[in-house]
C-alpha cells in the first residue's frame, strides 16, 4: 500500500505494526493504539476491530466514537468502490450465477453441510478472494497442512489467551460431559465457560475406570490448571473451599423421567404410542396419507431421550382427531395397509382403545411440569439456575422427585440465584424460606473471602431486599 493510502487507512493510522516471523513467513500484525490488543492476519481485521463489526475479531472497547465512525465510513466507501460494476447488469448476474454454481459444486462434491454457508469464515474467505482479484493461486495441499494450519493454530491459541485474561474479572464455570464414541470408548470432555466464550480444555478416555475417586482426581487437576480463584461432588468442594460444584440440572431431571417411565400407565402409553408412530413413519404411503389430515410431526426430537418421549406423547394426543379421521377414511379402508393385520391393529389402538388415550393423558399430566423445567434448563437461550426453585413449587411432591431434588439438585448455588433473581424476589409469592436464605449465606461465606467485601455485600443485599 502506498504512503498516501496508508495515511487514510484507519488500520495504519491507529495501529502500530508488529513484525512476527513464523515458519519462514512474515505476517502483518497490528497493535491497536487504544486498547493495545495485537490483531493478527491483516489490516482488514484491524478495521473490523475499530469499527466493531464483530466479524471474527473482538471490537475495541476503548476506541473513541469519532475513530469508530471514521472506520465505519471507510469500510462503507470501500464496499461502494467494489460494487461499481465493471460488467453490464445482465453480464454481472450471469457471472455471479457461474461463481455460485462453482461454489455449490464444491459443497456437493465434498459433502459439506449447507449450514457452512452461514459460517463467518466462509464469508471472510469469499471477501479475501474478491479483494485479491484475478490470478489468485489457490493454496496447495502442502500449504494447507503446513504453514496455513500452523498459523491458524497459533491464532486460535492467541484467541484463547485473550479469553483467559478475562477469567479473573468474570470468574468461570468448569463443565464436563460424557459420551461414547463409535469404538465404544467412554470419553469425558472438559470445558471452561464465562461470558466471553466457551473454551474446550481437553478430552479424557475413562473407559477403564470411571469411579468417583478418578473423577475427583480429573476435576481436581482441571481446577488446578484453570485456577481455583477463577471458577464458579462434595469431595472436590471439601478440597477446594472457594468453588461450588453442582450437577447438570437437565441430567437430574432426565433421571426423574427415567424412573417415572417405569410406572405401569406410563409403560402402556409409551409402548402403544411408539407402535403407532413407528408404523406410520416406517411406511411411506401411510406417512403421506397422514399428512393429508395433519402436518404435525408425531416425533419431537430434543436433547434428552425421555423428554423426547413425553413431547412425542403430547404431539400424538394433539393429533388424535387427525389420526381418527385418517383411519376412518375411505382411502385407508380400501388400501393394502388397511386390510393387513398390522394396519388393523393400529386402527384398533387409535379408534377403540380408550385405555390408550386415558393412560396417555395421565402420563402427560404427571410429567408436564418436569418436562417444562427440563426444556428450560436444557435451553441455551438463558441461564436457568435462578428459575429452579420457583419451578419446583409447581411439581407434585413425588418420592422420585424428592429423592433427586434432595440428593442432587438442592444446592446452595441454586438457592442464591433464586433469591437474587429480581423476577421472583419482588413477587408477592416469593419464597423466603430459611433453606433459601441459608443457601444464600453459605454461598456468600464460600465465595467472598475478604471481610470488608463481605460486609459491603451484606449492605448491598439489604438495599436489594428493601428495594420494593
From TrEMBL:
Keywords: Metal-binding, Zinc, Zinc-finger. Pfam families: DUF659 (PF04937). GO terms for molecular function: DNA binding; zinc ion binding. PROSITE patterns: ZF_BED. Coiled coil: none annotated. InterPro entries: DUF659, RNaseH-like_sf, Znf_BED. Residues 6-67 form the BED-type domain. This is BED-type domain-containing protein. It comes from Aquilegia coerulea (Rocky mountain columbine).
Amino acid at each position: 500500500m502506498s504512503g498516501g493510502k496508508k495515511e487514510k487507512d484507519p488500520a495504519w493510522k491507529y495501529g502500530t505494526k508488529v513484525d512476527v516471523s513464523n515458519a519462514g513467513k512474515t505476517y502483518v500484525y497490528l497493535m491497536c493504539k487504544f486498547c493495545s490488543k495485537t490483531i493478527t492476519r491483516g489490516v482488514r481485521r484491524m478495521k473490523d476491530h475499530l469499527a466493531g463489526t464483530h466479524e471474527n475479531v473482538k471490537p475495541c472497547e476503548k476506541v473513541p466514537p469519532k475513530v469508530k465512525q471514521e472506520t465505519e465510513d471507510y469500510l462503507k466507501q470501500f464496499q461502494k468502490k467494489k460494487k461499481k460494476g465493471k460488467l453490464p447488469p445482465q453480464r454481472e448476474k450471469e457471472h455471479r450465477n457461474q461463481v455460485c454454481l462453482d461454489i455449490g459444486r464444491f459443497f456437493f462434491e465434498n459433502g459439506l453441510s449447507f449450514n457452512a454457508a452461514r459460517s463467518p469464515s466462509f464469508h471472510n474467505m469469499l471477501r479475501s478472494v474478491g479483494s485479491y482479484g484475478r490470478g489468485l493461486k489457490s493454496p496447495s495441499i502442502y500449504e494447507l497442512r503446513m504453514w496455513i494450519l500452523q498459523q491458524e493454530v497459533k491464532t486460535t491459541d492467541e484467541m484463547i489467551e485473550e479469553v483467559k485474561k478475562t477469567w479473573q474479572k468474570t470468574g468461570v464455570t468448569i463443565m464436563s460431559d460424557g459420551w461414547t464414541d463409535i469404538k465404544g470408548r467412554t470419553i469425558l470432555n472438559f470445558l471452561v465457560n464465562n461470558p466471553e466464550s466457551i473454551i474446550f480444555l481437553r478430552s479424557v478416555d475413562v473407559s477403564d475406570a470411571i469411579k468417583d475417586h478418578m473423577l475427583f482426581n480429573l476435576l481436581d487437576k482441571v481446577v488446578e490448571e484453570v485456577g481455583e480463584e477463577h471458577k464458579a461432588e462434595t469431595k472436590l468442594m471439601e478440597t477446594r473451599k472457594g468453588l461450588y460444584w453442582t450437577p447438570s440440572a437437565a441430567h437430574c431431571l432426565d433421571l426423574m423421567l427415567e424412573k417415572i417411565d417405569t410406572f405401569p400407565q406410563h409403560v402402556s402409553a409409551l409402548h402403544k404410542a411408539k407402535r403407532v408412530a413407528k408404523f406410520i413413519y416406517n411406511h411411506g404411503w401411510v406417512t403421506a396419507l397422514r399428512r393429508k389430515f395433519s402436518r404435525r410431526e408425531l416425533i419431537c426430537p430434543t436433547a434428552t431421550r425421555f423428554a423426547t418421549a413425553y413431547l412425542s406423547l403430547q404431539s400424538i394426543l394433539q393429533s388424535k382427531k387427525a389420526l381418527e379421521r385418517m383411519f376412518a377414511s375411505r382411502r385407508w379402508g380400501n388400501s393394502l395397509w388397511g386390510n393387513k393385520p398390522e394396519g388393523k391393529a393400529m386402527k384398533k389402538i387409535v379408534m377403540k382403545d380408550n385405555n390408550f388415550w386415558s393412560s396417555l393423558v395421565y402420563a402427560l399430566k404427571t410429567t408436564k411440569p418436569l418436562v417444562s423445567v427440563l426444556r428450560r434448563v436444557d435451553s441455551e437461550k438463558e441461564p436457568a439456575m435462578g428459575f429452579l426453585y420457583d419451578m419446583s413449587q409447581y411439581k407434585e411432591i413425588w418420592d422420585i422427585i424428592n429423592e433427586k431434588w434432595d440428593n442432587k439438585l438442592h444446592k446452595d448455588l441454586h438457592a442464591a440465584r433464586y433469591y437474587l433473581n429480581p423476577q421472583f424476589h419482588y413477587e408477592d409469592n416469593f419464597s423466603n424460606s430459611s433453606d433459601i436464605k441459608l443457601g444464600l449465606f453459605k454461598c456468600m461465606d464460600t465465595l467472598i473471602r475478604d471481610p470488608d467485601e463481605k460486609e459491603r455485600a451484606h449492605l448491598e443485599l439489604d438495599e436489594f431486599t428493601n428495594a420494593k
